[in-house]
Amino acid sequence: MSAPSPTRIAAGVPADCRTRLMELARAADFGTGTRLFNEGGHADRFWIVRSGTVALDVHVPGRRPAVIERLDAGELVGCSWLFKPYVWRLGADATTPVRAYEFDAPAVRLLMDADPRLGAAVGAWVADVLAHRLWAARVRLLDLYAPYGSGEGL
Where do the coiled-coil regions begin and end (predicted)? Predict the structure, then answer.
């Protein structure tokens, strides 16, 4: 059995901290094709997918956005809310109907400041997610644009 993905909240945040964080959640539903956010927009919220799939993409001048990763249940959508200047670095689309938990980023940042243990757990989880996404973006962009791809399939 493989280790749980670091992008899933259960893999990165202790149960008691997850419970406190989830107290700030509200339900959000998105239809297929809904744009959750655009690169360069204000990052004032984030989501944890309950069901469905969200595609993260990066703007490529003169082309359609390149899909970097697809996110499923339990995964974090949006990391830019944690880092000033709170601007989205990627874009996101619902590729299927999506049910999610939505979080108000300023409220979560206040909770993180008030509870250093929770703040450290959420911060470490988001850092793990970012490391995973950076690697996924690298591999995907090499596959799309490098003459020999990423070499991942070799």
Answer: none
Domain 9-144 CATH superfamily: Jelly Rolls (2.60.120.10)
User: Which of 92, 64, 97 shows the shortest CA–CA distance to 79?
Assistant: 92
Does pLDDT of 153 surpass 90?
A: no
CA dihedral over 62, 63, 65, 66, signed as positive or negative: negative
Sequence-distant (≥ 6) Cβ neighbours of residue 19 within 8 angstroms:
none
Whether the predicted pLDDT of 81 surpasses 90: yes
Centre a 10 Å sphere on the Cβ of residue 123 and count the other Cβ atoms it contains: 13
- Interacting residues of 15 by C-beta distance below 8 A, sequence separation 6+: none
Question: pTM to 2 decimals?
Answer: 0.84
Other beta carbons within 10 Å of 141? 15
Mean pLDDT on 41-57 = 97
**Domain ranges (residues) in the chain:** 9-144
Beta strands in the chain (DSSP E): 26-30, 35-37, 45-51, 54-58, 66-71, 76-77, 91-94, 98-104
Cβ–Cβ under 8 Å, residues 75 and 7: yes
